[in-house]
Amino acid sequence: MMAATGPTSGRDILLLLLYVPGATGEFNEPIRGRTRLTKIMFIFEKEIYEAYRFDRIIPASEMPEFYAWDFGPFSKDIFDDIEFFRRIGFIEVRATTGLEAGVEEAGEHQRWQEMASADEETDPGDYAEFTEETFQLTDRAISFIEKESLYEALSDNQRSILQDYKRRFNGASLYAILQYVYGKYPDMTKQSKIKGRVVF
């Protein structure tokens, strides 16, 4: 049996961001919306990855790829990872009741479906019609994180920064996150269909 080594990929970071406490102070605090999750991963890669030495344990080639799209930075990798974790029972995906999905959520989900459907191994019928979703780890995923020391293998500083980071961005409105991304990373918003609506 191989020794636990801590996080080694962007997939592990996705699990850790779902695992650490956020605005509520509770571990495994859910994250609402694919757009929010995508932008949280994007900002992590831009501002946390190298600054807090995550690059020492996770190669750049193992991080998700982002490109400018209709609603700012988009990553098919993250949507694929969410689907992978859902299928193996690591992430519980629940429809968010009482709230309409925003145009960003619907648009990004549609884009992912189009890209996934182009994959020869993907059956378009596998994907349900879009509703806004909340993502939370299952007990199986939490056991995996603990067994593989994904969280414990991090330095105290890395654990602290992940918690502060999730608290900041999971507690913010999606509009505030978009304002931040659009103001700080204009190159990733050149194709955005909502650029005029995001005032910063």
How would you characterize the overall build of this protein?
This protein is mainly alpha-helical and 200 residues long. The chain has one domain (10-189). It has seven helices and five strands; from the N terminus they run αβαββαβαβααα. The chain has helices spanning 10-19, 34-48, 76-87, 103-117, 139-147, 156-170, 174-184, and strands spanning 31-32, 67-69, 72-74, 91-95, 133-137. The strands form two sheets. It has a three-stranded antiparallel β-sheet with strand order 1-5-4. A hairpin with a 2-residue loop joins strand 2 (67-69) and strand 3 (72-74). Helix 2 (34-48) packs across helix 6 (156-170) and helix 2 (34-48) packs parallel to helix 7 (174-184). It is globular and about 45 Å long. The model is unreliable at 103-109 and 121-130 (pLDDT under 50).
Keywords:
mainly alpha, 3-stranded antiparallel sheet, single chain, 5 strands, globular, 200 residues, 9% strand, 44% helix, 7 helices
Main beta sheet: 3 strands, antiparallel
Distance between the termini: 51 Å
How many domain modules?
A: 1
Helical content stands at 40-55%
Q: Proportion of β residues? A: 5-15%
Quantity of strands, as a count: 5
Overall pLDDT score: 84
Run of helices and strands:
HEHEEHEHEHHH
Question: What's the arrangement of strands in the largest beta sheet?
Answer: 1-5-4
What sort of overall outline do the alpha carbons produce when their principal axes are compared?
Answer: globular
